Amino acid sequence: MGTAGGAVFPETQQSFAARAAGVFVSPVETFADITRRPDFLPLLVLGVAGNLLLAETALARIGMERIVRSAIEQSARASSMTPEQLEQAVSQGTKVSVAFAHLGGLLSAPVILLVLAAMGMAITSAIFGSCVDFKTAFSIACYANLVSVLGAVMAFVMILFGDPDHFSPRGPAPTSLGFFLDLRQTSKPLYALATSLDLFSFWLMGLLGIGFSAAIHKRATPFSVFLCFFSLWTTLVLARMGWSSLG
Question: What pTM does this model have?
């Protein structure tokens, strides 16, 4: 609340445009405003639209057959397959993967945002003893996810103007170390680690730290909350590396 001449006035809410810009230029003040008056619908629509555009552009520009063929040729089982078996696997994989690509473009953003919100609620409750309601947690996740939307824009540009033969869905933009590695000459666990070391992933976790710290009225510092997300991220990366070594 603000005061002037003894009168009390409610604090004004930032517009959506101001909040979206503030995530990048003044995140502390912006997330403080978001936690006071949470909203998420425009960000949810933007996230779904961005993922759909990226998925459909990749299907049109790269082609699912090329993506599936590259994945199979780089797998351990490719060396034991005859040319006929390889073509059959590519054909079957393409049909299934196209359906999943359409569905993933539609559902991946809401699912990821729900997971981030749930993680934030669990961290603040179990570790810092403060409860954050779902609307606030989901709003924080949606606004923090704006950096992922920016990453999707970069990937979109790379798909349009990059070399289709060197496209990798796990490292589509030059924001991770994996983008600069050749999977054919890199061990799978190392490649999984390299694609996980993405600038935008750390940026996202930093924003989540700021947002959930604000939501619990700074009973924990943004860095403390960031470390909790980072610990969960590290566990996920290690699991990815272990799973990739089995392929």
Answer: 0.83
